Amino acid sequence: MPLAALRCSRLLLERARASAGIVRARSERSLLCELPGPSFVWLLAPALSLNPRAATCRLDALSCEVGAEVRCTAAWLELGAQRVSLLEAEPWDPRWRGGSAPTATTPPPEQPLPAELARALAGCALDDADALVTGLLGLGAGSTPAGDDLLLGLRAAWRLRGASQLPALDAAVRARARRATAPVAAEMLLDASEDRYPEAVQLVLAALLARSSLPPALLRLRELGASSGVAMEWGIHLGLRVSARA
Protein backbone atom coordinates (compact mmCIF):
# COMPACT_ATOMS: atom_id res chain seq x y z
CA MET A 1 0.00 0.00 0.00
CA PRO A 2 1.50 3.39 -0.97
CA LEU A 3 2.46 5.96 1.61
CA ALA A 4 0.11 8.97 1.45
CA ALA A 5 1.43 12.51 1.35
CA LEU A 6 -0.16 14.79 3.95
CA ARG A 7 0.01 18.15 2.17
CA CYS A 8 1.09 18.92 -1.37
CA SER A 9 1.75 21.95 -3.54
CA ARG A 10 -0.76 22.31 -6.37
CA LEU A 11 2.20 22.76 -8.72
CA LEU A 12 3.07 19.08 -8.27
CA LEU A 13 -0.54 18.05 -8.74
CA GLU A 14 -0.65 19.90 -12.08
CA ARG A 15 2.27 18.04 -13.69
CA ALA A 16 1.46 17.34 -17.34
CA ARG A 17 3.53 14.15 -17.80
CA ALA A 18 5.61 11.58 -15.97
CA SER A 19 9.34 12.15 -15.58
CA ALA A 20 12.22 10.18 -14.10
CA GLY A 21 15.24 11.22 -12.05
CA ILE A 22 17.16 10.42 -8.88
CA VAL A 23 17.18 11.19 -5.17
CA ARG A 24 19.75 13.97 -4.97
CA ALA A 25 19.93 14.58 -1.21
CA ARG A 26 18.39 13.30 2.01
CA SER A 27 18.36 14.43 5.64
CA GLU A 28 16.24 13.58 8.64
CA ARG A 29 13.67 16.23 7.66
CA SER A 30 13.82 16.40 3.87
CA LEU A 31 14.39 14.41 0.70
CA LEU A 32 15.25 16.12 -2.59
CA CYS A 33 14.47 14.52 -5.95
CA GLU A 34 16.08 15.86 -9.12
CA LEU A 35 14.16 15.50 -12.38
CA PRO A 36 15.06 16.55 -15.95
CA GLY A 37 15.20 20.28 -16.61
CA PRO A 38 16.64 20.29 -14.04
CA SER A 39 13.57 20.44 -11.85
CA PHE A 40 13.11 19.36 -8.26
CA VAL A 41 10.56 17.80 -5.94
CA TRP A 42 10.93 17.94 -2.17
CA LEU A 43 9.45 15.52 0.34
CA LEU A 44 9.42 17.20 3.74
CA ALA A 45 8.72 16.13 7.29
CA PRO A 46 5.12 16.88 8.39
CA ALA A 47 6.07 19.77 10.69
CA LEU A 48 7.79 21.76 7.93
CA SER A 49 6.14 24.43 5.80
CA LEU A 50 5.89 23.80 2.08
CA ASN A 51 7.69 25.32 -0.88
CA PRO A 52 6.22 25.51 -4.39
CA ARG A 53 7.57 22.06 -5.35
CA ALA A 54 7.08 20.12 -2.13
CA ALA A 55 4.84 17.68 -0.35
CA THR A 56 4.95 16.55 3.27
CA CYS A 57 4.87 12.91 4.35
CA ARG A 58 6.24 10.52 6.96
CA LEU A 59 9.86 10.45 5.85
CA ASP A 60 10.70 7.85 8.49
CA ALA A 61 8.58 5.40 6.51
CA LEU A 62 10.76 5.77 3.39
CA SER A 63 13.91 3.66 3.14
CA CYS A 64 15.33 5.04 -0.13
CA GLU A 65 18.73 6.71 -0.11
CA VAL A 66 20.69 9.17 -2.25
CA GLY A 67 21.03 7.89 -5.80
CA ALA A 68 17.77 5.93 -5.81
CA GLU A 69 15.70 6.18 -8.98
CA VAL A 70 12.60 8.39 -8.92
CA ARG A 71 9.54 8.57 -11.14
CA CYS A 72 7.06 11.39 -10.69
CA THR A 73 3.54 12.01 -11.97
CA ALA A 74 0.70 14.24 -10.81
CA ALA A 75 -0.62 11.29 -8.80
CA TRP A 76 2.43 9.79 -7.13
CA LEU A 77 6.17 9.69 -6.54
CA GLU A 78 7.87 6.34 -6.99
CA LEU A 79 11.17 6.06 -5.14
CA GLY A 80 12.80 2.74 -5.87
CA ALA A 81 10.25 0.12 -4.82
CA GLN A 82 8.21 2.58 -2.72
CA ARG A 83 5.40 4.86 -3.81
CA VAL A 84 4.10 8.08 -2.25
CA SER A 85 0.55 8.95 -3.29
CA LEU A 86 -0.15 12.65 -3.79
CA LEU A 87 -3.88 12.48 -4.55
CA GLU A 88 -5.01 12.14 -0.92
CA ALA A 89 -2.89 15.07 0.24
CA GLU A 90 -4.35 18.42 1.31
CA PRO A 91 -3.55 20.77 -1.60
CA TRP A 92 -1.75 24.06 -1.02
CA ASP A 93 -1.55 26.88 -3.57
CA PRO A 94 2.01 28.23 -3.95
CA ARG A 95 0.90 31.22 -6.01
CA TRP A 96 0.52 34.44 -4.04
CA ARG A 97 -2.86 35.93 -4.88
CA GLY A 98 -2.97 38.61 -2.22
CA GLY A 99 -3.43 42.32 -2.65
CA SER A 100 -1.02 45.19 -2.27
CA ALA A 101 -0.55 48.26 -0.06
CA PRO A 102 0.41 46.52 3.22
CA THR A 103 -0.69 48.09 6.47
CA ALA A 104 2.53 47.16 8.29
CA THR A 105 6.29 46.92 7.79
CA THR A 106 8.74 44.48 9.30
CA PRO A 107 11.08 45.49 12.15
CA PRO A 108 14.83 45.18 11.56
CA PRO A 109 15.66 41.46 11.68
CA GLU A 110 17.04 40.19 14.96
CA GLN A 111 19.96 38.42 13.32
CA PRO A 112 22.54 40.62 11.57
CA LEU A 113 22.82 40.73 7.83
CA PRO A 114 25.56 38.24 6.81
CA ALA A 115 28.80 40.04 6.09
CA GLU A 116 29.04 38.89 2.47
CA LEU A 117 25.55 40.26 1.78
CA ALA A 118 26.34 43.53 3.52
CA ARG A 119 29.43 43.96 1.35
CA ALA A 120 27.49 43.21 -1.82
CA LEU A 121 24.69 45.60 -0.94
CA ALA A 122 27.14 48.36 -0.07
CA GLY A 123 28.18 48.46 -3.70
CA CYS A 124 24.79 49.04 -5.29
CA ALA A 125 21.66 51.11 -4.90
CA LEU A 126 18.78 49.25 -3.26
CA ASP A 127 16.36 50.38 -5.96
CA ASP A 128 18.59 49.23 -8.86
CA ALA A 129 17.16 45.83 -9.79
CA ASP A 130 19.85 44.93 -12.32
CA ALA A 131 22.69 45.80 -9.92
CA LEU A 132 21.06 43.80 -7.13
CA VAL A 133 20.79 40.70 -9.30
CA THR A 134 24.37 41.13 -10.51
CA GLY A 135 25.70 41.51 -6.97
CA LEU A 136 23.58 38.93 -5.15
CA LEU A 137 22.77 36.10 -7.58
CA GLY A 138 24.66 32.98 -6.52
CA LEU A 139 26.39 34.73 -3.61
CA GLY A 140 27.06 32.28 -0.79
CA ALA A 141 27.21 28.54 -0.24
CA GLY A 142 24.59 25.81 -0.33
CA SER A 143 21.78 24.80 -2.66
CA THR A 144 20.10 28.19 -2.13
CA PRO A 145 22.88 30.76 -1.54
CA ALA A 146 22.11 33.61 0.83
CA GLY A 147 22.13 36.15 -1.99
CA ASP A 148 19.37 34.26 -3.78
CA ASP A 149 17.33 33.95 -0.59
CA LEU A 150 17.60 37.71 -0.07
CA LEU A 151 16.54 38.33 -3.67
CA LEU A 152 13.44 36.19 -3.14
CA GLY A 153 12.46 38.17 -0.05
CA LEU A 154 13.11 41.44 -1.85
CA ARG A 155 10.97 40.32 -4.78
CA ALA A 156 8.12 39.35 -2.44
CA ALA A 157 8.20 42.78 -0.78
CA TRP A 158 8.28 44.60 -4.12
CA ARG A 159 5.36 42.49 -5.34
CA LEU A 160 3.41 43.37 -2.21
CA ARG A 161 4.02 47.07 -2.66
CA GLY A 162 3.59 47.09 -6.44
CA ALA A 163 7.10 48.52 -6.76
CA SER A 164 8.08 49.89 -10.16
CA GLN A 165 11.37 47.94 -10.06
CA LEU A 166 9.63 44.55 -10.14
CA PRO A 167 9.61 43.95 -13.94
CA ALA A 168 13.33 44.74 -14.18
CA LEU A 169 14.11 42.38 -11.31
CA ASP A 170 12.14 39.53 -12.91
CA ALA A 171 13.75 40.11 -16.30
CA ALA A 172 17.26 40.02 -14.82
CA VAL A 173 16.53 36.83 -12.87
CA ARG A 174 15.04 35.05 -15.89
CA ALA A 175 18.02 36.02 -18.03
CA ARG A 176 20.74 34.91 -15.58
CA ALA A 177 19.47 32.49 -12.95
CA ARG A 178 20.07 29.22 -14.81
CA ARG A 179 23.71 30.02 -15.49
CA ALA A 180 24.67 32.09 -12.43
CA THR A 181 23.52 30.12 -9.40
CA ALA A 182 22.81 26.62 -8.10
CA PRO A 183 20.01 24.74 -9.93
CA VAL A 184 17.76 24.54 -6.84
CA ALA A 185 18.14 28.26 -6.21
CA ALA A 186 17.54 29.10 -9.88
CA GLU A 187 14.25 27.21 -9.83
CA MET A 188 13.28 28.90 -6.55
CA LEU A 189 13.86 32.36 -8.05
CA LEU A 190 12.13 31.52 -11.32
CA ASP A 191 9.12 30.29 -9.35
CA ALA A 192 9.15 33.57 -7.40
CA SER A 193 9.16 35.53 -10.66
CA GLU A 194 5.76 33.90 -11.29
CA ASP A 195 4.50 34.80 -7.78
CA ARG A 196 5.14 31.33 -6.34
CA TYR A 197 6.68 31.64 -2.89
CA PRO A 198 7.50 29.34 0.02
CA GLU A 199 4.63 29.01 2.46
CA ALA A 200 6.62 30.76 5.20
CA VAL A 201 7.06 33.82 2.95
CA GLN A 202 3.34 33.85 2.13
CA LEU A 203 2.53 33.87 5.85
CA VAL A 204 4.62 37.04 6.29
CA LEU A 205 2.98 38.70 3.29
CA ALA A 206 -0.47 37.90 4.64
CA ALA A 207 0.49 39.33 8.05
CA LEU A 208 1.72 42.52 6.38
CA LEU A 209 -1.75 42.88 4.89
CA ALA A 210 -3.12 42.67 8.44
CA ARG A 211 -4.66 39.24 7.88
CA SER A 212 -2.77 37.71 10.79
CA SER A 213 -0.18 38.51 13.46
CA LEU A 214 3.27 39.41 12.13
CA PRO A 215 5.57 38.07 14.95
CA PRO A 216 4.50 34.40 14.59
CA ALA A 217 4.86 34.65 10.81
CA LEU A 218 8.39 36.06 11.12
CA LEU A 219 9.30 33.32 13.58
CA ARG A 220 8.12 30.68 11.11
CA LEU A 221 10.17 32.31 8.35
CA ARG A 222 13.33 32.34 10.47
CA GLU A 223 13.02 28.59 10.92
CA LEU A 224 13.25 28.02 7.16
CA GLY A 225 16.45 26.11 6.42
CA ALA A 226 19.75 26.71 8.16
CA SER A 227 19.92 30.36 7.15
CA SER A 228 17.53 30.83 4.22
CA GLY A 229 14.73 32.31 6.32
CA VAL A 230 17.01 34.95 7.84
CA ALA A 231 18.21 36.10 4.41
CA MET A 232 14.62 36.14 3.10
CA GLU A 233 13.55 38.20 6.11
CA TRP A 234 16.29 40.72 5.34
CA GLY A 235 15.12 40.83 1.73
CA ILE A 236 11.54 41.55 2.76
CA HIS A 237 12.66 44.20 5.23
CA LEU A 238 14.89 45.99 2.71
CA GLY A 239 12.36 45.62 -0.08
CA LEU A 240 9.63 47.28 1.97
CA ARG A 241 11.93 50.17 2.82
CA VAL A 242 12.89 50.78 -0.80
CA SER A 243 9.46 50.27 -2.32
CA ALA A 244 7.97 52.62 0.24
CA ARG A 245 10.02 55.37 -1.44
CA ALA A 246 9.32 54.20 -4.99
Sequence-ordered SSE layout with sheet pairings:
Layout: E1 3-4, E2 7-9, H1 10-13, E3 19-26, E4 30-35, E5 39-44, E6 54-56, E7 69-72, E8 76-79, E9 82-85, E10 90-92, H2 115-122, H3 129-136, H4 146-161, H5 166-180, H6 183-192, H7 199-208, H8 214-222, H9 228-245
Parallel strand pairs: 1-9, 2-10, 5-6
Antiparallel strand pairs: 2-6, 3-4, 3-7, 4-5, 7-8, 8-9
Helix pairs in contact: 3-4, 3-5, 4-6, 4-9, 5-6, 7-8, 8-9
Task: Give a written overview of the molecule.
This protein is an alpha/beta fold and 246 residues long. 40% of the residues lie in helices and 17% in strands. It has nine helices and ten strands. The protein has helices at residues 10-13, 115-122, 129-136, 146-161, 166-180, 183-192, 199-208, 214-222, 228-245, and strands at residues 3-4, 7-9, 19-26, 30-35, 39-44, 54-56, 69-72, 76-79, 82-85, 90-92. It has a ten-stranded mixed sheet with strand order 1-9-8-7-3-4-5-6-2-10. Strand 8 and strand 9 form a beta hairpin. The longest helix is centred in the C-terminal third of the chain and has 18 residues, at 228-245. The radius of gyration is 18 Å and the shape is globular. The mean pLDDT is 92.
